[in-house]
Amino acid sequence: MDRSDPHAPVDHMASDPRLGVGGNNPPPDFSLKDLVDGLAARLDGDHTADMTAEIEAIAKRANDEPTEFATDEDLAKATDIVNDAVTAFDKYDGIRKDEKDQYLKGGKIVDDYFRSPLQRLTRIKETFTDRATKYRRDQKRKADAEAAAERDRLAKIAEENRIAAETAAAFGDEGEASARTDIAESLEARMEDVTPTTVETIRGSSGGSARGRTEWTYEILDFQKVDLNAIRAFIAPDAIEKALKQMAKTQKHLAKVEGVRFFEDDKVQFTRR
Q1: pTM of the predicted model, to two decimals?
Q2: N or C end of the chain, less CB within 10 A?
């Protein structure tokens, strides 16, 4: 190509390296962390002045209105102010979403990249947790059965000695009766000390450990029979509010709950022009 000919076609890829292979890559000194760290300052520079001016103008009009409406004219002015406020809200909320969208997309890319390997690791942990829990439960059942068998064995021997003590006493052998009674009492005391033997903690060679623990939990046998009064103190107020709101919406004038007043309430709804 003749570079001296002004009418010769221009090789844009040669003149602008961004149009060549790798031209879409960020500059070598690009830092995503610096971009995020400087985000607040950029947003402030791009939007604060215009957004503040527009909102302050609407707020001033709102503050000039009476705190209580006395005429339909007051309501008409309020309608215009609310309409402008909603319009401004939609505009700046749209800007917010546009600004945020690129970061959300980046976050989704990161999440998608790591999701599969992390899920695989989670499945490994959950699988072995289930196996270890089953093993511990089997060991505990076995230990409980062994402890129960030992208590039964001691109880049987203790009972045999009490019978022998009664027999000896009946024949006037107080010494034998006393000795047999002492043995029975000793065996009964040992019964109280018999507890299941389990290994609470197993340590691996890497320093990790598997520790058994016991906790109280529950199983709902019949949902309809659950006594809500019994668990009232543990129900979050928000959950009660949500239930009452749904009840008022669906049952209307038929809704009745002790301690609650259901009623029709008049409200104004502003709509966009």
Answers
A1: 0.58
A2: C
Q: Which of 234, 250, 254 is nearest to 242 (CA)?
A: 250
Q: What is the pLDDT of residues 202-245, one digit of tens each?
A: 787 777 888 777 788 889 999 999 998 899 899 999 999 999 99
* Domain range annotation of the chain: 35-197
